[in-house]
## 1
Amino acid sequence: MTFVTTLLLYFTSFFTLMNPLGAMPVFLSMTDGLTQKQRKNTAMKTMLTAFLVLTLFAILGKYVFDFFHISINGLRVVGGVLFFVMGYDMLNAKISRMKMTTEEEAQTYTDDVALTPLGVPLIAGPGSITNAMVLMGDANSLADKGLVLLSILLVSVVSFIILLGATGIIKVIGSQGTKIFTKLMGLIVMIIAVEFFFAGITPYVQTMLH
């Protein structure tokens, strides 16, 4: 394959699995109550976290998993639990009522949610981490390995732009619309959580049965 074709293939696979469009509702809900500057900082930290995690696993993923004797299914189970708790809070509109009284509180909050659950496992989730490890493992040359890392960077930049654009939605739908939106997305996130959890726990159950 040519340089452009390979890069496009890698980019498409990461964009689909990282799914920044699908992450928009969660991002909007978790940053409701923050200023535009704080929301921008959260988006930047989220994508920087995702980029660093995916790059780390692309380069050292196999060794990290082997060293700690963990599997990608373990990440799915943990991600499912995190998503379920987050979805439950969204369904009860707890997240949308978070208001930061001081700059320090806002800074701590944006740092926390940017790392998890937004950066990991929402953006850099089990699928994208596995993809990074597989593509890097299948790369036959340094050029191909470089394309894997370049595609991660490009998708991270595009995802950052998408999350920034999502902030305009809050202005359009207003406070009441955001609460309704949050409840609806909370239900969807809980459904995603169940899918994550059972996708991860199934191999463990099958192993025990056999």
## 2
Amino acid sequence: MINLTINGLAVSVEEGTTLLEAAQSLGFPIPTLCHMEGLTPYGACRLCIVQIGQDEKAKLVTSCTYPAQEGLEVRTASNRVLKARKMIIELLLASCPQSKTIQDIAAKYEVRQQRFKQEYEDCILCGLCVRMCEEQMMAKAIGFRGRGETRSVGTPFDVKSDVCRLCGGCMYVCPVCELRCTYNEPEKAICGACSNLSPPCVEKEPFDDMMCYMDPCVVCEIQK
């Protein structure tokens, strides 16, 4: 067994367990878009970042791909983590502002602005559809194409796949295809219709972490 601490709590997990799995076993909420049980961890959306280490040696890692290590100190909701998470949400909103899933996450983590140019694309390259098609449906009908700005998901050479069974699994797992936020306006990337207050504990000294992990936070609900 591997022994580590998450938000100050000691936990023992089996070798090969990821930090995301270890944190979830203790009930700590960590958002993610590209992770799904039964599929290979991919670490594309970056939403599941956590902080490991202390002081100047501390760094952010994706918890869904980072394995638990002996003696590791993990923080899932430090000020640094929450700020980085908000910026990632802003970037996701720039790509797919009409995704209801992303809009809900933005509201939950108090994202009130979007500082990046909106692209109005239909894909965040989370890889869920590709992994679902290959690992669960055993078809490999779709895959990633190109690199960098030209990276996309589809069939080779855009030719209709002979192995696709039209099962719809790719659409079922897609965080963009699941549901569209129709309230969204072109000049307003953030819907705000489902807004929640941010944790007040991380905004006041001397706290650098969330003081509780209740969903929703009792204090936040009282202060609404």
## 3
Amino acid sequence: MVIDVLRATTTISRALKNGADSIQVFADLDLLKESAIKWQAEKRLMLGERGGKKIEGFDLGNSPLSVTKEVVYGKRLFMSTTNGI
């Protein structure tokens, strides 16, 4: 659990450092999808994992290495992880 929290917060910090517009976090995947769909596809990313695996249909999992400047700059991130972050 502690590692999950550290990984999620590191991913969030790195995404913001690399120019993400903002990050919304969700425990509920349906609510995440409802919120994300309101944004233009090219201006949003859905990040999520369950049990350490990327959620099918999402853009990224929960790896700090995946939130590079080229990927996240100027985008709103919608994120959910196993631990509820």
